[in-house]
Structure formats: structure tokens, C-alpha cells
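notes to self, project folder thing:

trying the whole complex as one job this time. last attempt i did each chain seperately and stitching them together was a nightmare. three parts in total, labels are on each line so i dont mix them up again. if this works i'll redo the older ones the same way
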Amino acid sequence: MFAEVPLFPEQASTTAQRVDALFFFLCTVCGTMAVLIAALVLYFAFKYHRRAEDERTPRILGNNRLEWFWTITPLFVFLIMFLWGASVYTSVALPPPDAMEIFVVGKQWMWKIQHPSGQREINELHIPVDQPIKLTLTSEDVIHNFSVPAFRTKIDVIPGRYVQIWFQPTKVGNYHLFCSQYCGTSHSNMVGTVIVMEREEYREWLASQAATGSLADQGRQLFLKFQCITCHSADAAARAPVLEGLYGRTVPLKDGRTVVADDAYLRESILYPEAKVVQGWEPIMPTFKGQVEEEDLIKLLAFIKSLKPGQTPVRNEEASPPLDAPKVPPGGNPKPRESVPTYRPQGKSTQP
Amino acid sequence: MSTNHAVLAHHFENLEQQRETATFGMWIFLATEVLIFGAIFTCYAIYRLRYPLDFEAASARLNILIGSINTIVLLSSSLTMALSVHATRVGRQQMLLTCLLLTILLGGTFLGFKVVEYYEDYKEKLVPVLAFDPDEWTKVEGVEAPIQPQHVQLMLVFYYIMTGLHAAHMIVGMGLLIWLVIEARRGWLTPVRYMPVEIVGLYWHFVDIVWIFLLPLLYLTGTHHPTDLHF
Amino acid sequence: MSSAITTGFTPQAKARPPRAPGENYLNVAFGVKSWLLTTDHKRIAILYLVTLTILFFIGGAAATVIRLNLMTPNGELVPADTYNKLFTAHGIIMVWFFLVPVVPTVLGNFLVPMMIGARDLAFPKINLLSWYVFTIGAIITLWALLAGGVDTGWTFYTPFSSKYARTNVIPTMLGIFISGFSSIMTGLNFIATMHTMRAPGLTWWRMPLFLWAHYAVSVIQVLATPVLAMALILVGVERVWGVGIFDPELGGDPVLFQHLFWFYSHPVVYIMLLPSMGITSEVITCFARKPIFGYVFIVWSSIGIAVLGFLVWAHHMFVAGQSVYSALIFSALSYLVAVPSAIKVFNWTATLYKSSIAFETPMLFAMGFVALFTMGGLTGLFLACLGVDLHVHDTYFVIAHFHFIMVGGAVMGYMAGLHFWWPKMTGRMYSDFLSKLAALIIFVGFILTFLPQFVLGYLGMPRRYHVYPPEFQVLNVMSSAGASILAVGYVLPLFYMLWSLYAGKPSGPNPWNATGLEWQTPSPPPPHNFDETPIVTTGPYEYSMEESALVH
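result (full assembly):
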């Protein structure tokens, strides 16, 4: 039975190797310290135990040199620990550029995973071995924590924002996925499996999974469904910024600031369009908060990220603009052509 | 306690020590108070920096007139409080009583105005949950970018928590002042036993200072127009 | 002060009230009223002792059920909701209603005035009020925990606590909020007392380290507790009105709560720990019969812990999506706060050099404290290390670490102190054999309970898990077995301590031949502590009777 009892977790990512090296270093240093102190205390306890009731002791009040020695020495040792720890931590903070991006949405009490090629899974994450994987995570409700002990990495998944984490699996196998941040009744059931596969196997797995187009494709459909295209068209009739090649660019804002168009910015601009208005445009976009779910947001983001110049879909002239879109386009923007379809009144009764 | 209202408590060596201890205790208590207000000020500052326009818009709608009057009222009450301490030290009983009653009056005026102000806020639909119209905030004039009503609501929530906490401190202070009046009428506040007045004074001044921070943080953040001065 | 103010009053020390022979604080008055309306710091300490002992065993009972449930991977004993409520109750009771108050309010209340040669604390009525406030808070929280329970964890993380939890969050927080004032009152009282009421000759640098530790603790209590109060108010407001303070949907930031919470709850660890460090310094010097090594360094390390302890809160949030720069700063600061703790351990060890050690019960507990606290401190270095925290954050590694600090550290220290000053408090000696046995059982039981949890943590078992993968079972069973031993160790003192009240042999004023003012008055002490105001002429711990060439 004891043969099955693991005492050390599997080492299945490049991060794991780095964390374990650091861990063993700490174990060695701290173990030495502990043994040293224990040995001294035991030695003193043995050597100086009271033999006679009237035993006398020398009046030793201290030794400043010794004090400074054991103040400064730990400080240096701690500095090494800090620097080493910091280097591991920062290396995990920055994903390599060739990382494959997978999206994760946590909710009470499951993990919903979306692959770039459109496959979806719940509480299971299939990934190819030796491939850097970047996860973009968010939560639909409370704070969760995406934790894979075999990869020695974890991150709090916070509602209302995107967090990122990356790892490169080095070993084929099945590994635990835990929610490590207490999230309610079934916290301990918010677990899953990370399945690391050979590249070939992974490709086969992908092919075997039903997917209605890649994530970006699905986003494209949503882009049309939510009528984003009505304003964000690439033609002269556009009443909103062109989104082609936007991701990662620096965008000048109306109030003079600039912002890098990252995941958080795109997300905010869909949910709270007025928060950061692009220079040269009026804040006419209605909010999509409450209409777009976290998973759809991810699809839209994937689409916008994938959008290269000339790839904006052609506007469907029959489509109607989103609810609450302004009747009269504000001045300063390119004037709409007469061919723009009739707008719905601002009534609340109909959904586009 | 025994007769003579135990000028010197049983565990102190002498009056000097007793006075020192009482004042010192009050200062420590004020350190606690600084941290409790410090915590809420920090939260306010964080959201203020995150949503500057929304906070300014909300601030512009607060009642600057009552806020200003209350500032003057409260500063005056600090003066009468300081005079009470002086009167006790020099043993002028009548002046002490007058100044204490004046402080209570001014403190009451402040709270009265505060109630009026809350009611005005209610009528102005500035009370989240109770009376708040999200739609009106999306059309604020004179502000560049449109406003997020939920962020305005956040500002208003902080406004009520901060002024509410301050008002609660005022009410406690009023209670202490009434206790002092009772003591003064019995003739127990003398140059020898002036500590109660002094430590209540410290507290009162502290509450006053908190307001001096609240005024710019809450009322002066947004731009008020002369036409805003209304009841 | 002008001379007019003191007219008619003698500035000289006033005479102590005369005392009948044999009169002490216990037999000076009888009846319920004489206890419930007392302003005597010693009686208030006893009130706290009784209250906190009850609370300790309630919190311990919750832990027992938790450990029993974890013996099987599928959590067959209690349902998930009950389990969540149990660990919440265990955390809340143990942190706020036992560990934070226990040493300051029991031993601190009893000893601070005696150690500085005063008749009482500076504000005796506030001291009594603090017990009432604490008890009211405890009753409200206990009621909330028992009648329905709370399932947020003791950390109340938003938005779970503010929006999603459907349990008694508000009553529980109300009780904690109220009891917080008791903590502030105690701290305020101690600071004022130590500043203004020290006996003639007792300068700051002659104060026993127990007092310095309490001074540092009091500063933390006074400055950190109000921030928790504010955090709880904000969660309450958010929960009742849903206005968005911590709700990202409405523009709030759920992580802001964690900042407020840990700004209190990290320093709070030092509230638990510092007094036990003070106790250890007292006990080790007494039973090693030697002055403390490096007094000044230990004092400054206490102050350093109190100050630095305020600057490390965000190390609880390394994986909470904070910026890398913030993580770097807080990691570095966390390492800094480890230095003063290391200094203390080295100095305690050095004190044993050329000493004369008697292994009485308090000394056994104190040495247990040093051992377990060292382990706890060293594993803290792992958690402060960003790269390792990435893996062990929110796992059983953290659980094991902070139990080593809080139970192995704070509770062991408390036990040492309780056994050390029990003869002073009651005038009776407890059973030598049983108390040594208890020390041994607690030490062994503790190691067995929490050592496997380090392994579990590095394996990745997350905290607060009602069910867990089957391969973790063996280690969990080991831990639960240790816990049952630990439980015996904690119940045992209850019996021999109570038994000593009936059958214990009289201890005399100074059974351990200790220095310190508290030992120079009868046991139990008279109502006003000393028959004459003591005058202090030397530093603390003058145990060595001959001058040595080693004096620096």
C-alpha cells in the first residue's frame, strides 16, 4: 500500500523543474539551519542541565559582534532566496511569444475550457507536450484558483478581469487540476484533469472533437450576430474604429491618454464602451454587458485578435444595428451613406 | 466610587500620573481612529483614481452650501470646546457651562444640517438603492466622457459611509458633552479635575479634523457652479 | 503643569491600603457580583481565562470533526456544506476568540501591572468593559456559527462573502467587529500603563521582555484592528445593499478586500506570536538561571516585528493577480521581517550556553516553543519565496506552516506561560508528572499532525477540501492520528490544573526562584499586588550570582 503513497509530486513542466530546484535549495538551507539550532539546543540541554541546586552561572549579557553576525548572515541568505524566488516568479509571469493560447472560464463549480480551434471541454484540459501553453482565465462569479500541482503553478481566477499564466508540459500523462481558492459548497469538487498528450495524439484528439469552427470563427459569427459589423466596418461608412490589426497596438484615447489594446482593454471596451473612447470617435457604442457571456467574450476577443488587414467581414446590409445605437451619427465622423439600413427606434421592446 | 468623586483613583500614585495617563490614553485612542478613517479614505482614494470623472460628476451634485455652512459650524464648535477646556483650567464655572452648551448647540446644528442635507440628497435622487436614477447620469453636461452610473453609485456609497461614520462620532461626542454638562453642574470639573474636559476636547477636535478632510475629498472634488448653491 | 493644579494634594506616593494577613485577590470578596463587577486586573484575567478556555475547546471540537472527516477521501462523515462551516468556525473561533486575545488578556492582564510594580492597569474600568465587549462579541459569533453557520472561511473573501454566500455572514462579522473593540481596549490599556505607571527605577531598558513583547503587541492591536473593522463594515454594506464596493459587475474590486483584510490579519499573526516570545524569554532565563543573551537585540527585534509586520500583508496575495513589482517588494519585505525572528531564536539558544538548566514543565513547553516556532519560521521562508509560493500557495503547506506558528508557537508559549505563572495566579502547584507528560504528548502529537501536511501541501492538496484524491489518504490519516494525540495533550492540563486548585500543594511566593517583581509578592497576590510600592534597582534576569570576565 505504501508503494502507492506519493511523497513528491510529479514533475511535468519546465516550471516544475525550476520550482523544485529552488525548493530543494530552500530545504537544504533551512534544514541545515534547523539541524544546527536543534543540535546546539540539545547539546546545551545535555551539557548544562542542572546538577546541583546551588549551581551558579556566568553573567553573560551578550556579544554585539555575535549579534551583528547573526543579523547580517541571515539577511544575505534571505537575499539569495529572494532573488532566486523572484527570478522563477518573473519567468512565469511572461509567456513566450509562441505560446498556444487557451481560454479558461471558472464558475461555481466547474472549469470551462475553450481551445483556439474551437473545441470546448469541461474540467478537462487536453494539451500537447513540449508546447508552451498560455492560459487566459476569468471567472463568472467568485474568485477561483487554477492550480496544477504537477506544473507547480497556479493563479487566482478573478471575476471581472483576465489573468494569464503559462507553462510548458514536459511529460505525457494525466495530472490533477484543482481549484485552490475556496469558492463555496462544492469547492473540493471543482477539480479536473490536465491531459498532456503527444503532439500527434493531440492532433487526433482535436480532430475527433466536434467544433463549429475555430474560436475566431465562432467569434466572427458573434461579431455578425451582435451587429458589431454595422459600425466597426472597414469601409467609409464605419462609425467606429476599424479593428483590423488592433490587438497589441497602442491606441490614442479621446482624453489624451493612450492605451495598449490588450485583452483587458478589449474586454472593457465591449462591456463598458464609454470608459476608454478612441480619439476621433464619439462614444456611441451601447454596452454589451449582460448580453455577452464570458465565453462569448472570449470568442469575440479571439476573433478581434485574429483580424488581419482586409479581413473584416463584409457588412450585411440587411442587418440592423444593436439596440440603443444612435439614430444620428455624431459629427466629426465619416458621414453615413444613405444606404445604411433603417434604424430601429430606441424602444426596448425588440431585440436585434 | 467614594465621596469627593474620587479625585485620585486608587491605582495611581498621584494626580500628575493620573492626568498624564488619561491624556495619553486618549491619544492612543485617536491613533486607532486615524486608522479607521485612514482605511476608508484609502478605499475612497483608490476608486477615485480609478473612476475620476464619475467621482467628480457625483461630487458636483453634493450640496456644497450645506457642506460649507457645516464646516463653519463645526470649526466654531472647536473654538467653544477649546474655551471650555480653558475655563475649567482657570476655574470659571459659568464660562465652562456656557461654552459646553454652545458646543452642544453647534454640534446639534451640524447634525441637524446633516439630516437636512441627507433629505435633500434623497430628493435629488442621490441615494443608491433608495432613490437613484441611473439614467440621469449618462447625460451629465459639461463632462467630456459619459458617466457610468454604477461608478457614481460607488462614490455616493462612500459619501454615505464616510459622512455617516463621522456623524456617528459626532453623536458619541454629543453624549460625552452632555455628560460633561452634568458633571459641570455638580461642580466636579475643577482646575484639579479638568481631565474629563480635556480628553473630550481632544476627541472633539479630532472629529472636527476628520471633517476638514471629508470636505475636500467629497464636496470639492467636482466643480460646483454658483447656481448650485441651493437648499 | 502649573503648581496651582496640585494645590491641596500631596504629590508624594500615597500609602497602600492596609491588608489583613493572608488576604489575597481571590479571597478578598466572594460571590458572582464580586467577579462580574470587579475592576481588579487579576480577576479580569481569570474571567478571560475561563471564557477563552471554553472557546478553545469549542474551536478544538470543530477541528476534531474536520480531521475525522479527512480520514477518508470521500468525506463520508459530514456533508460538504457542514464541512465548510466547520473549518470556518474553527478558523474564526481560534483566531479571533482564542489566539488573538489569549496571552494578552490572560497572562498580560494578570502580569503587566505586577511586572511594572503598579496596583492595576491604567484604566481598570475599560479593562472590565473589554471583557464584556469580548464576551458579547463571542456570544453573537457563536450563536451565528451554531444557528446555521457560516461557510465563507475565516478570511471572508469577496465577492463570495459579499454576494454569493447564503449563510450567517453578517451576524458573524458583527461579533468579530464588536470583539475587535475589546482588543483595542486591551492594547490601549497596556500602552498607557507601561508609559505612565512603571515603578520607581523601572526604566524602559530594565523592563522584562514579556513587557516589551506586550508593548509591541499593543501597538499592533491599536493600529491594525480598526482596519479590519472598516473592512467588515464595507462587506456588510455591500452584502445588505449590493452597491458594488467589491463587486466587479458594478465597478468594485474584489481584491481590495484582501488588501484591507491582510493589512489587519498579517500583523495579527504577530499579535498571537509576540507575547509567546515574551513568555519564552522569561521562562528560559528562569530555568537556565542565566540573564538573557542580547537583551537589547531582542527588544529591538520585537519592535522590528511590530513595524515590519505592517508592511508585508500582500504576501498573502502573490497568486492573486497582483503586479510583479508589487510581488517583488512584498517578498523582499517578508524576508526582512524574518530577520528579527531569527535573532530571537539565536539569542534564546545562546542564553543556554554555560547555563544551569532545570527541566521543569514550563521549560519543556518553552523549548517546545523554540523548536516548533523555528520550524514554522523556516517554512515561512518557503512561502515568502515567490517561486515556491507559486506552487504551495493555498495548499496544506500553508496550513502546516501557520499551525506551526500559531499552535506550535503561540499556544506552546501560552502553555509555558500558564504553567510558569499558575502558582502565582492560584498559589498552588500542579502535578509535576502529569504536566510533563502533557508537554510531551502535545509536542509529539503536534509534530505528527502537522508534519505530514507539509508533504501533502507540496504534493498539491489544496486547503479547505472536503474530499480529496485517494492517493493523499495515508498522509491524511497520519495527520488525523496525530490530532487525536494532540487532543489528549490539550485535555490533560484541564484536569490537573483544576485538580491543583483542590489538592495542589501551596507554591509559596516564588516556587521557581525567578527574578521579576511579580515574584516578590505573595501567591496569590494581594488585591493591590504589593504591600509597598517596589523600587527597581537592576535590569531583569539577574540570575547569575557572580560577576564574570565575559561581561561586555
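what i see at first glance: Chain C has one domain: 46-520.
need to look closer tmrw
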